[in-house]
Design brief:
Keywords: Lyase
GO molecular function: lyase activity
Number of helices: 1
Family: Belongs to the scytalone dehydratase family.
Helix content: under 10%
Largest sheet: 2 strands, antiparallel
Radius of gyration: 19 Å
Strand content: over 45%
Protein name: Scytalone dehydratase-like domain-containing protein
Length: about 50
């Protein structure tokens, strides 16, 4: 698949967020991992992730 330089095939706009989780282990707070989220609000996002 060839496309001319500078040509945009699909556009999308989204907002993301991250929540960081911690757990208390033996009285000490430890990082337990992130919870990531994304909300696509407009655009051809279905086509962006096609195989």
């Amino acid at each position: 698949f060839e496309r001319p330089p500078g040509q945009v095939l699909y556009k999308g706009h989204a907002h993301g967020n991250a929540t960081l989780h911690y757990r208390q282990v033996d009285g000490e707070w430890k990082f337990a991992g992130p919870e990531l989220g994304i909300r696509w609000s407009e655009g051809d996002y279905g086509k962006i992730f096609e195989q």
